[in-house]
Write a structure and sequence with these properties.
The structure holds 2 protein chains of 2 kinds. Chain A has 10 helices and 21 strands. In chain A, the strands form 5 sheets. Chain A has a 9-stranded mixed β-sheet, sandwiched between helices. In chain A, helix 4 packs across helix 5 and helix 6 packs parallel to helix 10. Chain B has a single domain, classed as HUPs (Rossmann fold). In chain B, a hairpin with a 5-residue loop joins strand 9 and strand 10. In chain B, helix 3 crosses helix 4. The chains are: A alpha/beta, B alpha/beta. Chains A and B meet through helix 5, strand 10, strand 11, strand 12 and strand 16 of A and helix 4, strand 7, strand 9, strand 10 and strand 13 of B. Strand 16 of chain A pairs antiparallel with strand 10 of chain B, so a sheet runs across the interface. Chain A: Belongs to the ETF alpha-subunit/FixB family. Chain A: Keywords: Electron transport, Transport.
């Protein structure tokens, strides 16, 4: 519901009708009463009511009746709670958790898990390391197992397989579901399948009647087979859970995970030239628009942040940025996780292009523009000053890190 | 110093016509192998020696291609495991997924499990090989790279981040030799229970609106940019604004 304040004719009618059971509740707040010293006290703020335009109206004709109750528009729906007190079996899901949150692929997978679990089974989500997700309950997680420890941090696929084997021994899930994605799930699932000796069903896009269908070969054929125990499912394999709330009860492993001797050592991420990453798949885009006056400073900030540069249509038309850097309907539809818009007011064509972005940061002079409505964090101010402060802050942060490491 | 590298190749299928061709990722594995080992590269295929598409790999400048001869529908895994165990290779390169058949991408994982070797996924570049270990760059989604140190011998899959394969030339493709080995044939039991069928196009997901009231449906149909919820910093100094932005960027892990 919108926040527009409206007259409620029914409430006014109840307030006029002394015989209505809700009559007392609809009376306007008392605004004059006898004080302790026998003096009449008045509350001048209690007089009148808030009109349809949000302006206080005082009607002295005596016709005013209805309560001055502002009807708030809280439509927070509490979904019904789905409980599995004693699960007959488990369906285990290992979400990717890109950036520490459930991706849409993970949510689809949880939907598929619920399809397989029915009413008796419980969906067990196995999450490695720290996470930032707070919506496990609405995503459909009945039991949550967080495997923490520095051995699981970074790139440690062999150790994670050991963790999954321990989960397999303890819970013996009926099915294992992993996302068949490039961001970890596909690899982990296949490693786990090889370790278990199970033959997984890969790139599965439909599970129906104890049969699963997955893409085969280069995508020209489908492979239909009986439901496998280990399923690597493609994106949009099922509808995500949307009508129930779940417990997300934390569970723990009773045994400690075997430490595997790592034969692959993670030496960390390598700096990649951000300009060489295609815009459509860049993770972090720093985009400039009409509000940017100092383009040299803009490029300098993008370099300092290590971000891929983008631009709005105006900036491209004015010749400040190349055409292939344009974000939006007639440019590139980007999928960045973090999108920083500097001086972009947010035309609808531009907002369409950043529809898939996770976090949007806006730097703008106009507090009423559409980009600010879309953004998760907006800073109102002159872009040049903020960019300069940002460069200084990044440099200070990096120097601090270096001093801590030394 | 020469490295003993084996590239595993398969028969691909053209994405539109479905005709046999050199598989793209396998060709990248051969290209990477040629860059690593030069003329010492061994290329191995399990399947039919008479397949003309195999000659496209020879056309990349190989003198010889080993074929473990198998009928279609046979399991390539036991033959390859037995061959690689005795081949003395330090690096084995494969594509990440076959273009025909099941294409589950499990072969390198099962080979690594059978041989007990480490496996690197999405190899983009081998930086150096010395002292029984290799420094390699792994391709991550969104164009990122990660440096790994892996013990030799190891298996690696390549995907589209690996160097582009060189063209296949006709003359070398004719001159190259296909050396066939007879191996024990093991049938793949999956094909007994599973059926291959032409791929069904997947329907685009519909946006289902589960509104209970007419007002909710109207709102869902006319919704503009999702308003509110965001934090707006107004009237703060540039420094405070920049700090807030940087805090979010660090939390998201994009500024390192």
């Amino acid at each position: 519901m919108s926040d527009i304040i409206r007259r409620d004719p029914r409430a006014e009618w109840i307030a006029r009708n002394r015989l209505h059971p809700l009559h007392a509740a609809m009376q306007p707040a008392l605004h004059s009463w006898m004080g302790p010293n026998g003096v009449i006290r008045k509350n001048p703020h209690g007089v009148g009511f808030i009109g349809p335009n949000g302006i206080k109206r005082i009607d002295r004709s005596g016709a005013q009746q209805g309560g001055a109750v502002k009807r708030s528009a809280t439509a927070q729906v509490q979904l019904p709670l789905h409980q599995v007190p004693a699960p007959a079996f488990y369906i285990s899901v290992v979400p990717d958790m890109v950036g520490g949150r459930l991706s849409s692929h993970d949510r689809d997978l949880l939907g598929l898990a619920h399809q397989l679990a029915g009413a008796d089974g419980a969906v067990l989500a196995v999450v490695f390391g720290e996470h930032k997700e707070s919506a496990f309950a609405t995503a459909g997680v009945d039991r949550l197992l967080v495997l923490e420890g520095e051995e699981f941090s970074g790139y440690a696929p062999e150790q994670r397989v050991q963790g999954l084997r321990a989960v397999d021994n303890q819970f013996n899930p009926r099915h294992w579901l992993l996302p068949d994605s490039r961001s970890g799930g596909g690899e982990l699932g296949r490693r786990f399948a090889a370790a278990l000796g199970e033959r997984p069903a890969t790139r599965v896009w439909q599970v129906k009647d104890q049969e699963c269908i997955g893409r085969a070969g280069a995508g020209l054929q489908d492979l239909a087979r009986p439901l496998a125990r280990l399923i690597l499912a493609a994106a949009e394999c099922a509808e995500p859970v949307s009508e129930t709330r779940h417990e997300a009860l934390p569970v723990e492993l009773s045994t400690s995970v075997v430490r595997s001797l790592s034969r692959i050592e993670d030496l960390g991420a390598v700096a990649v030239d951000p300009a060489a990453i295609p815009m459509a798949e860049a993770e972090f885009i720093f985009s400039g628009g009409n509000g940017v006056k100092d383009w040299a400073l803009f490029h300098q900030t993008a370099a300092a942040l290590g971000a891929t540069e983008g631009a709005s249509r105006v900036a491209v038309d004015d010749g400040f940025m190349a055409r292939d850097r344009q974000v939006g309907a007639s440019g590139t539809w980007v999928t960045a996780r973090v999108y920083v818009a500097v001086g972009i007011s947010g035309a609808i064509q531009h907002l369409q292009g950043i529809g898939a972005c996770d976090k949007v940061v806006a730097i703008n002079l106009d507090p009423g523009c559409d980009m600010i409505k879309r953004a998760d964090l907006s800073v109102i101010g002159e872009s040049a000053a903020i960019l300069q402060a940002l460069i200084a802050a990044v440099e200070a942060y990096r120097n601090d890190g270096r001093r801590d490491a030394a | 110093m020469s490295t003993n590298v084996i590239s595993l190749v398969s028969i691909g299928a053209h994405p539109t016509s479905g005709r046999p061709r050199r598989a793209d990722q396998d060709a990248r594995a051969v290209e990477l192998g040629l860059q690593l080992a030069g003329d010492n590269l061994q290329v191995l295929h399990a399947g039919d020696v008479a397949e003309p598409a195999l000659r496209a790999y020879l056309g990349m400048g190989l003198e010889q291609l080993h074929v473990l001869e198998q009928p279609p529908g046979a399991d390539a895994l036991p033959a390859l495991t037995a061959y690689l165990r005795d081949a003395g290779a330090q690096v084995v390169l494969t594509g990440s997924q076959a273009e025909t058949g099941e294409g589950s991408g499990m072969l390198p994982f099962l080979l690594a499990e059978g041989l007990g070797w480490p496996l690197v996924i999405g190899l983009a570049q081998v930086e150096s090989i010395n002292d029984g270990s290799a420094l390699v760059l792994q391709a991550l989604p969104r164009g990122q790279r990660r440096r790994l140190k892996v013990k030799l011998p190891f298996l690696a899959t390549v995907d589209n981040a690996a160097p582009k394969p060189r063209q296949s030339a006709y003359g070398p493709a004719r001159r190259g030799e296909l050396a066939a080995d007879d191996v024990e044939v093991v049938e793949d039991e999956l094909l007994a229970v599973a059926t291959l069928q032409p791929a069904k196009p997947r329907p685009k997901r519909l946006k289902v609106i589960k509104a209970k009231s007419g007002a909710d449906r109207m709102k869902a149909a006319t919704a503009k940019a999702s308003g509110g919820g965001g934090q707006v910093l107004k009237g703060v100094t540039a420094q405070a604004g920049a700090e807030a932005i940087l805090k979010l960027l660090i939390e998201e892990g994009v500024v390192r």
